[in-house]
Amino acid sequence: MSQVSSFALGWRTLWRDWRAGELRLALVAVALAVAALTAVGFFSDRLQGGLQRDARQLLGGDAVLVSDNPPPADWLAEASRPGLRSTQTLSFPTMARAPDAQGGAARLVALKAVPAGYPLRGQLRTSETPADTEGSPAQSIPTSGQVWVEAPLLEALDLKVGDTLLLGDASLRIARVLTFEPDRGAGFMSFAPRVLLNAADLAATGLVQPASRITWRLAVAGDPVPVARFQAWAKARLAEPGARGMRLESLESGRPEMRQTLDRAEKFLNLVALLAALLAAVAVALAARGFAARHLDGAAMLRVLGLSQRQMALAYAVEFLLVGLAASVLGVALGFAVHYVFVWLLAGLVEAGLPAPSAWPVVFGLGMGLTLLAAFGLPPVLQLAQVPPLRVIRREVGALKTAPLAVLALGVLGFAALLLATSRDLTLGLIAVGGFAGAVALFALLAWGATWLLRRSVNEATAPRWLVLATRQITARPVYAVVQVSSLAVGLMALVLLVLLRTDLVDSWRNATPADAPNRFVINITPEQAGDFRAALRQAGVERLDWYPMVRGRLVAVNGRDVGPADYAQDRARRLVDREFNLSYAAERPVHNEITAGRWQPEEAGAASVEEGIAETLGLKLGDRLRFDIGGIPHEARITSLRKVDWTSMHANFFVMFPVGSMPDVPVTYLAAYRAPASPGFDNALVRQFPNITNVDLSATIAQVQRVLGQVIRAVEFLFGFTLAAGLIVLFAAVSATREERAREFAVMRAVGAGSALLRQVQRAELAGVGLLAGLLASLVAAGVGWALARYAFDFAWRAAAWVPLAGALAGGVLALAAGWWGLRGVLRQPVVQTLRQAAE
After folding, report:
1. Backbone angles phi, psi at 486, to 5 degrees
2. Which of 110, 142, 174, 676 could be 146's S-S partner, Cβ–Cβ 3.0 to 4.6 Å?
3. If you compute the radius of gyration of the chain from its CA atoms, what whole number of angstroms results?
4. pTM for this one?
5. What is the pLDDT of residues 31-44, one digit of tens each?
6. Distance CA 269, CA 720 (A)
């Protein structure tokens, strides 16, 4: 026997144990964890590659200078160096009109003047009719005398292709419908319908005046080396003190709505994959311990036959590593197949097909599977090598012990490090991994206390026989009871957390842009028009309305010291100080703004509430005194509160608000945000009645956001299935862990006269009690972990309902009974003589 190699012995035992079904639970658990992690990994890898590939198209070039004024001559000269191509566009908001003969309706548009050769990267798409939403690639730009417009403008002005559009002093023919513009961007004015104009016709419109607020974009494209040289030169110029109103645009700054959506989607998917991996670790540990317990006698016999501890340890290590490798390969293959479901569910987040994935997800998946089995499966199995030969004649010798703390710590720390790397977000990883680690310790402590309390609370003289026997079953093996309750609680915790995430966290995410969110923003409403405007909305059926005064003011001093762009190093801070703020006032705090510091005191004179993001950018804090120039009138206020503002919500928000009901000494207009009625012609009638207002239609933007959120949520729910399966495997493994001990104990009770009906009552009472306790503990901890994830990882205000602990306890009892019925269904049917003979062998 000593001549047999460890590898050959490991292979033989693997084949025998696999045919006996000993390793299937561990293999399924590892495969599920690896599949969940690699599915997310494959998709994220391809998505990142696609975004990097498409970044140039999203920007319209390889590098783009965005400025408030025409680029200086040296910038144009640098952009014209050999190896580079460049285009210069300008865009600004203006009003477009239909001819008087066709109604004379007016609409705010985002006008963009482009030269020949635009765009450098990507391609415009146009169609002949609004019904064709896809369009076809455009081979050029609009010819002189023509414009291309987006379909919402045609509907708003009741025009069609071939009609005339009035822009300032020019009359231009609508030649095509613009269906796609690669460098559209995400600024406020991008919500208005686009009008694409040949740059040669811009002067004829007379719209460009000295005070016009125009955005200039100098796009550069070429080979990597000249582009990198231009970027380095541009960054050096922008760092100079005199550089104002200019910035280099990147994917993150140019398309923040896409970046934020993808980041949040990836964070959700990573969380679900983490839960699956954590549950798989528990299932592997339980399955490995059960495997080791069933092989104690066989290991003792191998020792009698002369096999050394080293040979046995190597053989079992070979067996489990081969299982881990097979499970990891299976999980990687399954994850690769599943990631195509994500690609299908999230179609449209990038404009073109995704590139092929790299080899990293494969390497990571194999490493994670092997680490999972080595960290949680090998420690109990390797104890088989230490079983003394004496166990062959003395069964009480050589029982399994807890693995050495150093071995457990090393494996757990290695696994935790991999999970933290997987999360790609330290806060998310620490909450998920740390929450589960803390939960296991808490569950074990509470389960021990509950076992001790149960032993002393049941009066055996008066309690029913089934309850007395069930209590003895639990309290006779306190360690097993603690392990079983803790394992069940961990599995149930993940399941409860999934339900809470689905019903509360995901719903909160979707409610950020609810179906009834405001889809119109109207500005420039004068005080004289306020009453009539609100009356017109009420008459049209608009019941809910965000209504705020809007004041234009420039920040000129902080704590008595004059400030200007030169006082700030950050480009965004310089731009903020260099322009006017949109200020507002209201006695009551906006319900969608959360106070994060200080307090909002209604009608507090000389007070100001500042949005926390701009306060951080400008280095402002509570107690600072601000001075604004409002139409030539100085106004001072002290910061008494900081507000958290969700800029992705469709509500009116302001950087600075004064907590007063009126400010009679400052010039003011009003802003309204509401959901427009579905009646046709409403917007045109409103503009005719109040021709000076600016009406911004956000319907298309809201529809796009809701569509993307719906895609992401479906993808998250799909991956939840993996975690649900892993949780059920943990439940099954926890219940089955004591199968052999239960079989022997029930056989003894049957041998002394206990009937099958009584033993069924005992089994059900024990399982229900353990499940109820585990479910209660799991739901309480899941509520806490869910709150932490909502508050610190996903940035949502969230609170679990009061019924969650009760529902969790009931669900735990039902699931434990179901898992117990499936895993222990043969215990009571097995003949007593056979069970006792197996126990004696």
Report:
1. -65, -45
2. 142
3. 34
4. 0.58
5. 877 887 788 778 77
6. 9
